[in-house]
Amino acid sequence: MNRHFRLGDISPLHYFSSIAFVLGCIFTFVSDENQYPFGITFVQWQLQTFSAIGFFVLSHYLIFGRLGRLPEWMRLIIAGFIASLFFTPFSLAIDVYWLGIEGFTLGFLIEEWINMAPPSIFCWFFMNLPWLLGVEFRTQKGKAEQQDSTQLLTPTEHALPIDEKTLTDHESNMNGQTLPHFFNLCELDSLDDLIALKAELHYLSVITAHGQSLILYNLKDAIADLAPFLPSAQDWQTHRSYWVNLKKVEQLDRKGREGTLILESGATALVSRANMAKVRSWLEA
Question: Do residues 4 and 131 lie in contact, with contact meaning Cβ atoms separated by under 8 Å?
Fold first, then answer.
């Protein structure tokens, strides 16, 4: 059973940034490179830790499709292995061309990877351990903030192009079929409770009528999981990082060529320029 922690406005970005900063500070104080001023050593290790986590996050984020459907622990290990291959020459280049420690040779590169890869992959796995153990990072929504809108579009009675019968049929079918995998991860048992999905690094923020959950998942895979139950799900993505349940749309706050959708329970979702015409057609039909 999942364990729930209320963590305010924590996000993966804050989580990993904090870890990178703390690790950078630790490595600065335990470093044996005392010939360099403290400031240079501090900057060096902050650059190393932030860039390392960036490589790991990016590698995991880019794993989708068949690899994206592997068990999460396998995805983390694969992402860690890939990230270590690309980060090792970057890290060695910092030592060689900035600090002038040693030459950039194939032998040094292999030795650096052998020394660095195992502990870095272990740290990466450990940082994601809460999600692997089923710990769910959940926040509760407060009241919607008042927004300074330049143009608001609200749906009319028949504005949303949803086949209610089809949606109802899919809802009833979900009770007799296996739910999309990410539903189980966030304890969601009804499509009608799903408001929006938001990609946050290689995590997925699942916004529901009951609150918000953060799970280790990919937005593309989540949308693909919804397709058997809601064939039009692919068309309900409003931004590369946002997917919305069209049934939950209340209004559009348009600012220039971009905008923000106001959803039920005060949730919001960004609308990109490329998707603006599509979103406006939902509300102006």
Answer: no
Name the residue type at position 167.
L
Whole-angstrom Cα distance, residue 121 to residue 98? 25
| Residue 186 dihedral angles phi and psi, to the nearest 5° | -115, 15
C-beta atoms surrounding 115 within 10 Å? 11
Residues 215, 136 contacting (CB under 8 angstroms): yes
In DSSP terms, 153 is beta-bridged to 252
* Number of residues written out for the chain: 285
| Pairing status of strand 249-255 against strand 237-239 | unpaired
- Alpha-carbon Rg for the chain in angstroms: 22
* DSSP string covering 210-234: TEEEEES--HHHHHHHHTTT-GGGG
- Identify the CA nearest to 285 among candidates 157, 163, 149, 165: 157
Q: What is the pTM of this model?
A: 0.66
Tens digit of pLDDT for each residue in 121-168?
Answer: 999 999 888 777 766 555 544 433 334 444 555 554 434 444 444 444
